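In the design runs reported in the main text, the only information available to the sequence generator was the tokenized backbone. The following block is the verbatim input for one such run; it is reproduced so that readers can re-run the procedure and compare outputs position by position.
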């Protein structure tokens, strides 16, 4: 389903394919040979999404453009089922495996692999050709890799990366009630969406 959102409609190359149960919303550009499979959602909220030629977004993946954090998927990128790419830049030939999560401001270099259920935190940079192992967490720029049981070490770096400011544009003392009130208003823009194809 193609949706006009915030006055922008998707631009789809003639040779691209969007499954009937996928959603492509707003300022999204799909290059030649791109495939967006069933249940996937590409939502350009207030940041654009560009998907390079011959890239594939698998079933139930979510790709979201954010203010100040457009999504750029290079050429020949695989985004696996149930993966989450939010405001990230992914280089040519990179692999984002099933269940992996990329947060705003993160970059994944060309040919890198973010393996099953791995996490790339906000403002984290993965070098070209690097591998984030299954279930591990990458944090910092340049990225440091940690197994998920090393929470205290992850948190020591993560708290310097301004998650709340990067994702929500808010200060560290903002309450959850304040954040969700703002998010409710923000996502309320979908009430005026229009199906265009």
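Verbatim output:
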């Amino acid at each position: 389903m193609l949706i006009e959102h915030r006055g922008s409609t998707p631009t789809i190359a003639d040779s691209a394919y969007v499954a009937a149960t996928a959603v492509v919303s707003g300022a999204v550009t799909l290059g030649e040979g791109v495939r967006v499979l069933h249940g996937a959602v590409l939502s350009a909220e207030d940041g654009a999404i560009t998907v390079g030629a011959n890239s594939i977004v698998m079933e139930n993946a979510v790709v979201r453009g954010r203010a100040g954090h457009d999504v750029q998927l290079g050429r020949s990128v695989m985004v696996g089922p149930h993966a989450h790419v939010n405001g990230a830049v992914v280089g040519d030939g990179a692999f984002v495996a099933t269940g992996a999560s990329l947060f705003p401001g993160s970059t994944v270099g060309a040919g890198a692999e973010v393996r099953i259920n791995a996490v790339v935190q906000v403002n984290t940079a993965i070098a070209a050709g690097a591998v984030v192992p299954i279930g591990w967490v990458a944090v910092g720029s340049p990225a440091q890799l940690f197994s998920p049981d090393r929470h205290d070490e992850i948190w020591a770096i993560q708290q310097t990366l301004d998650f709340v400011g990067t994702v929500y544009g808010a200060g560290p003392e903002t309450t959850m009630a304040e954040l969700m009130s703002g998010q409710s208003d923000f996502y309320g823009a979908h009430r005026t969406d229009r199906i265009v194809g």
